[in-house]
Design a protein that fits this description.
Layout (H helix, E strand, L loop, with lengths): L1 H21 L7 H15 L12 H20 L2 H16 L5 H26 L13 H24 L5
Length: 167
Amino acid sequence: MLATWRAWARALANEVHAIALACRDPRVPWYAKALALLVVAYAFSPIDLIPDVIPILGYLDDLILLPLGVLLVRRLIPPVVLAEYRLRAPTHLADDRWLGRPAAVGIVVLWVVALAVGAWLLVRSVAPAPSAPGSPPSRRSARREVLHDALDGLGRALRPFLEGQVR
């Protein structure tokens, strides 16, 4: 049974590599490329939607979300194109240099953008309600100040990475 799971995982990795290669082909529609980019980034990302340390649930996203994403992308990419890149994927799988720094930077940028959008939405949701002049500040504005300070600290911590000072 363990051999079956390993073979399935190897086949899934090969399929993800084939999808990553097919994204560069001009015959693939833009919406398939966009979804494929998300699926490939999630597959190679060290950050999971549900952390793997949580028993059972931690691996559920890897066992359900990733295969579903791969199935959806497979339906969007023309079969001829995907078949061509399935043949090329094992050579790229053996040579991991194609992933390198650009893929890692892309994944980190995707997660930073997602976190920034989430933080922006959170700040908007706790925006202070208009109050009458001279009234005391609401609890909502106090929470907003705490959130603003936390995001400011995060920005200061990420500044060296964004300015390229850390390699």
